[in-house]
Amino acid sequence: MKSLRPVLLAVILVAAFYLLTTHGRNFEAPWITRPEHIELTEASSTPAYDAEEQENISVYKKALPAVVNITSTAVAYDIFYGAVPQQGMGSGFVIDGEGHILTNYHVIENARQVEVTTSDKKKYKAQIIGVDPPHDLAVIQIPSKTVPQAEIGDSKNLTVGQKVFAIGNPFGLSGTMTRGIISSIRSVRGQQGFIDEAIQTDAAINPGNSGGPLLNSRGQVIGINSMIFTGGVEQSAGIGFAIPINTAKAVIDDLVHLGRARYPSLGVGTLPIGPQLAGDLGLAADTGLLIVKVVEGSAADRAGLRAGSERAYFGNTPIMLGGDLIIAVDGEALTDQQELSHVMQKHRAGDSVTVTIYRGKKKMDVKVTLGENKGTA
Description:
By secondary structure, this protein is α+β, with helices and mostly antiparallel strands.
């Protein structure tokens, strides 16, 4: 009999486990109910959207049809020199009725194949038409001429605090819109050059948003989402940057017609002048850019601007004094080369500008037809 006790105990334990796991309902609390139909408290009617929601919806509906997803395929090589396809994702938007699409250069950089997916899920093989690496811009084209085009706005008078919206393909999630404000307007270093007057925003911008539009509250494109500050991780930290649309407008024609951007140039080498140096040199103005070199055959040379002829040293650097002192271009005062570069970005080669100079003590306005940048200002 003693030998049967362990067996009986095991049978009892198994039977108890079976009852608890298969017939647990017999042990439910007495307040549990299981009606066949649940009575929900439903809203009396569909609520109307408030003004902010209506604005969000309006911007999204207006802008989305022109926004595309871009998949680029490049080729890398492993340690055995074997070709390994690598895919990248980005965004873009249609800018005309010919199927031209504006995006970031880094989205299609080194791509062997580019595929575009429109908002209605149609896919097209795209061709790279033109690139502008220093500004991180590129134009690609698809064969379809029926994709709606974006409405292009103006980035000249943007204001910190202004509402903005970003639409793109973050992490491959197509048709995603986020919103925020313009946090600042500042120059930032991009992957291959400075982005002048970049639009800083707290609208969530993540990998895959690159090349997509940054929009104002009227659904007009004011920037091209380009980069994010990640704080060490590949996701938004609430600090994103967009290239101002006016920077793109200045080079779009060149990108489409020539395949590259023609940067305008005066064709001068300059030295920034401050009040102390101006006093030491006896110049007629406290600030400006002293011309120390004029490139032969350049725009400045053709317009008659003059470089210095008197050798001197700036620290250990030999310079030529006695040249024209540039104080403004088209009425915009200049104190350093970055400001001159900023003015140049508003123009194209072939544009005419008014350069205000001091030649000795005489103030003059000189008309200059800009040439193409060959490595000088």
